[in-house]
Amino acid sequence: MEYMTESQVKSTNTILCCRCGTPIEPNPTNTCVACLRGQIDITEGIPKQAVLYFCRKCERYLQPPATWISAQLESRELLTVCLKRLKGLAKVNLVDAGFIWTEPHSQRVKVKLSVQKEVMNGAVLQQVFVVEFVVNSQICEDCQRVEAKDYWKAVVQVRQKTEHKKTFFYLEQLILKHKAHSNTVNIKPIYGGLDFFYATQQDARKLTDFLSTYVPCKCQLAKELVSHDPHNNTYNYKYTFSVEIVPLCKDNIVCLPKKVAQSLGNINPLCICNKVTQTIHLIDPNTLQVAELSGTVFWRTPFRILCGPKQLIEYMVMQVDYIADKDRPHRVPASTKHVLADLWVARMSDLGVNDQQYHCRTHLGHLLKVGDSVMGFDFTNANLNHKEFEQIKSEKVPDVIVVKKVFDTSKRIRKRKWKLKHLNDDAAMETASMERDYNEFLEDLEEDPSVRQNVNIYLDRNKLAVDTDDTDDEGVPQISLQEMLEDLHIAEDATGEDGADMIE
User: What is the rounded distance in angstroms from the CA atom of residue 186 to the CA atom of residue 204?
Assistant: First the structure.
C-alpha cells in the first residue's frame, strides 16, 4: 500500500478557474481573485473624490451636517471628518484607513482605505483604494457674524469720568500685551470710554475679570431678553457689563474724607495721587507719608478730586531748602524714593511784573533745583466747592501744592527712540486734546518704571539717527534700550510662504 506525499495531496485539491482556467484552491465562487475583482467592484458606491470645507479665519473643518471642529493635518480628528464625507462607506466593512502625504499648500488630502465585503456564495473580498479630498475655503457662521461686526451677545462698557483719556491709552497697551482682545467682535470708542462687543457671555466676563485685575473698578451686569421659546423653555439674552473705573488719575490732588484718611494711617487729607495700578497710590507732600486706597474702599465712600492737571499753573523755583531726615515729620509708611524740601516759587505770569513768591513743601526735592519749572495748584486764588475741603482749617491749607516738574516737551519728543502699538494701526489722533493726552501718557511711561512694566515698548529705528549731542537736557526721564523690544512683522512673500521681516 502506497501513501501519497503532501505535495501530491495539495495538487489534487486545486481546481481550475471557471473564467481563465488558472489553477486555484477551491472557493465558493470557483473563480480566481483577479477575475473576481474584474467582475465585482465592492467600492462601486463609494466616491473616489470628495470636498472638505475649511474656514481660514478660525482654521476649522466642517463636519456634516453643521458642526465645525478644529483639526490638524493627518490627525485623527481630520480622518474622522474625511470618513464621514463618504456616503457609501456604511455598505462595506472598513478594515484600515490612513493618510497619504501631500504637499501642505496643494489643498489636497488623500486617504488610503482598505475595505471588505461579502460577495457571491459567501466569499469575502478585500480591496484597497485611495480617495482624494479637495479643500475648499468657506467661512463659518461664527466668523461671518464676527466679520459683519453687528452681531453680539455681550458688550462690556468701560467708562471713566475724567477730563482726559490717559487711562484708556494705558488699558490699550495692557490689552495688546496680554491679547485680551483676541475674541472681540468689535471695539467702538464712545465718549467717556470704550465698548467691547463679544459673541459669548463667557468672553465678556473674561475681559471684566482682566480689567478688575489691573485697574480699580466696579462691574454691574444687566441682561435684555431677545427671544423666548415656550416649547423648549429656552431664553435668548443680550448681556451688558458696565465697568466703571475710579475717577482718579496720576497727578490729581484729592481731599480725602475724614474717615478714609483715618483708616489710611491718619494721613493728611490733602494728598497727591502718585499713580494708579491695582490700587490708588497717594502721597502726602508735607510728610512723605504714602498710602494705598483700594477700589472697594473708594466705592464704599466715593469722593471727588480737588483739581486735575488742567487746573495746574506753571511756577518757577526760586529757592530750594532740603529738609534733613531728623527734621522732617516721621510718618509711617513713608516714601523712600522722594526727598522732602521747602520751596519758594513764583508764578511764571508774575515774572517781570511783581516779586511775589509762595512757600510750600514738596516731595520732589530729589528732582528740583533753582530755575526749574514746576506745575502746581494755587490755593490762594482758588474758589473750590468741595465738601471735604471746606472742613479743613485754613491754616493747614498750603499756598501751593507742587505736583510735578516740567521738562522741555520738544526735546523729549525728539529724543524719544521708542514707540507703542495700537489696536487700530491706522487710527490717528482725532483732536488736539487727545494728542496732548497721548503725549502726557508717553511722558508718564518715561517717568515711572513701575507703570511701563505692563507695557510692550518697541524700538523705533526711524529715530535712532537723531542728534544725541545735546547735554542741556540732562536729567530728562528716558527709557533705556534694554527695556525696548524689537518690532517683528510676520508677512507673506510672493511664494506664499511666511517670512519674518524686521522694520528697518
Answer: 12
